[in-house]
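Give me the fold.
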Amino acid sequence: MQRAGPATGVPTKTEQGDLWQALGAGQGDYPRLIVAPTSQLDLFQTIPELFNLCDKYQCPGLVLADLLISEGTSSIDPDELDFNVRIDRGELILPNGNSDGASSRQRLQRQGLPAFQEHRERHLPRAVPGVPGHIFTAATDEHDEDGTLVSDEFTNPNIRRMMVEKRGRKMKAAITDIAPPKLFGPESAAVTLVGWGSTEGVIREAVEKLAGEEGIVANHLHIKWIIPFHAAEIGRILCAEQTGDRD
């Protein structure tokens, strides 16, 4: 839950004050998925999508929700609640006698995953714990493609660099699986309001009030996915709003 500060009282109330914590917390840089749902319904629908993406790209995911969403109330059409969501765990090595996936994974990583293979990275299989003929290694240290730990006893800068670069490429692939933000409201507007997270409702209300009470035509660009960030699409929308060119 996003808070207003590191104490009790006000910090437990609604504010979007934990963004930098989510963006920067960690020992060094590593890819992570960060999403800020806009409402209770959006939160319900986003969690399965995030779980699928985290499994597919083998990285952590963070959900930025605040008090307005977690303890607020709203009316939801039951037909919008899908309890039979699609589950995508990515490429797996299952106990079916097929062990070629592991060798394929190691081979691609040894080759350094050049540009023409980057699109395959998200499909590299992983062994499910307990599969005969495979060893599942879970540790807190860096490791190579064989699961050998890179720590104080065994340090290899080449392997370290290869693994960091490999993880860094994941977001380039993940962004293709995530819908970019869309402009809400009239295409031609004097003002474009940009927001993220649970501010969606009040911003859209502001758009309506500006039109009805002030005679100001406004629209709204809401950013839900913080990482990966649709920089190109967002830049095109904002530039088009400034120049009036939407071709």
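The helical segments are 19-24, 40-57, 67-70, 100-110, 157-168, 170-174, 200-214, 231-243.
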